[in-house]
Amino acid sequence: MSKRSNILPLLTALVLVAAFIALVWWSPPGKPRLEVLGEDRVVLPAPVQVFLAAGDRYLAANIENFRAMSSGTEANLPAEREFRLRSFDTASQLNPCHEDNYYVANAILTWGGAPEHGIDILRRATHCRSWDYSPPFFLGLAQNSFLHDPAKARASLELAATRASSEDQASSLHRIGVMMEAGSYQSTAASLAFLRHEMESTHDQRLKAMLEKRVQRMEGLQLLEQAQAEFEQKTGRPLQAPDELLSSGVLQAFPSDPMRLGYEFEDGHFRLRSTD
């Protein structure tokens, strides 16, 4: 074998090392180089990790996800939180379909103080895992809870319903989406009109039955609000207790709640009683 053929692998290795160093230390104008976020807590850019994994981005994603999930002894320190944020995000860039990554990132980031980053990872997983209802389900909950956008939340839950494994599961996802949007209306009348429209337009009999109960419950709340307004107009004073509606003759009986949760009177207003 010639000396030239012996030297070729060495030259190739040197070129690869030089390329790796360039990838690590070069950055576009205005962007910082890699940050050391704590002892041994460096997160390499996704292209560098693909390079180190011999071009296998799935292997690179597995390795980075393992690093993110194995971190936890000092999870409350700023550097450690920043490491986890970047590590989960990089693993998502490498493989947005990674199930463990989106699932754990949702728990640690979305519900752990970094919802915008967790939501980005859930969006990628929703697009990538076109068969899986879980990412859009988690995404809808996050959009409602942290972005306060019930319309987008419902759209995500409707998408999750199209991926459901059973009719019961699809109905539950439809129901959650509808109730999220219904809860966004400021007045009982607007919420009631929305629920009636949904009940009349759906062809899902399970959802229709559920909405019928919600409509009846909301009608009961509207009846109490109207009775309170009539009482206060007649007496010229605020309602002090619900029983005054009966003793004054404004109401003959309190409305029944088909969901058996009932109503409550707090701070001078009737409200739907919840299980919270």
The poorly predicted ranges are 31-39
Tell me the helix content: 55-70%
Envelope shape: elongated
Arithmetic mean of pLDDT: 85
Major sheet attributes: 2 strands, antiparallel
- Total number of beta strands: 2
How do the SSEs run, as a string of H and E? Answer: HHHHHHHHHHHHEE
Number of helices: 12
Q: What structural class results from the helix and strand content? A: mainly alpha
**Order of strands side by side in the largest beta sheet?**
1-2
What Rg, in angstroms, do the CA atoms define?
A: 28 Å
Q: Roughly what fraction of the amino acids lie in strands?
A: under 5%
Distance between the termini: 79 Å
Question: What is the structure about, briefly put?
Answer:
This protein is mainly alpha-helical and about 280 residues long. It has a domain at about 40-130.
Give a structural overview.
The chain crosses the membrane at residues 7-26. Keywords: Membrane, Transmembrane, Transmembrane helix. This is Tetratricopeptide repeat protein. By secondary structure, this protein is mostly helical. The chain has a domain at 40-129. It is 64% helix and 3% strand. It has helices at 3-25, 46-52, 57-70, 78-94, 99-110, 115-128, 134-145, 150-162, 167-182, 188-201, 205-235, 243-247, and strands at residues 263-266, 269-272. Strands 1-2 form a two-stranded antiparallel ribbon. α4 (78-94) packs antiparallel against α5 and α10 (188-201) packs antiparallel against α11 (205-235). The longest helix is centred in the last third of the chain and has 31 residues, at 205-235. The N and C termini lie far apart (79 Å). The relative contact order is 0.05. Mean pLDDT is 85; it is low at 31-39.
